[in-house]
Design goal:
The protein is mostly helical. It has nine helices and no strands. The longest helix has 20 residues.
Amino acid sequence: MTQYDETKLLCDALLFEHGHARRTQHILKVYALAKLIGEAQRLPAWEQRIVQAAAILHDIAIGPCKQKYGEATQDKQRREAPALVRRFLRAAGYPEKDQPRILYLVQSHHAYDRIDGMDFQVLVEADLIVGAYESASPSETAAAACGLFRTATGKALLEQIIGRTT
């Protein structure tokens, strides 16, 4: 089995953002929550590896899309993501067999009707929680997303946002 290096993947992704504060912080927060929720769900090790890599790379195409097209729509990100994701995964030694699933999660993480596994569910929940905190109206954003949550940990974290008073 190929030895993968998650630390390299994370560092490479952060460096790729060239100091862009919001995107760098977003990567770190989604990664941390995906790790937490996945571990709380007791995902098998291979599935945890997949979700953590997808969390690191889930928005990797935003910067290049903004440079190339002047905008980063979901369609444009899906188009640009494959080459980027493969490049990052190869550089960090991820097994070839993991790459299709990681790419699928990266390309589909906003397609909530396509959630087809716990790895996908965990990524969606982590991204939505972070998105709620980053929004102008965290409680309202969290409340609007609550129907998409399935994990006990994700629901508990989301409830903290919805119920907060400040």
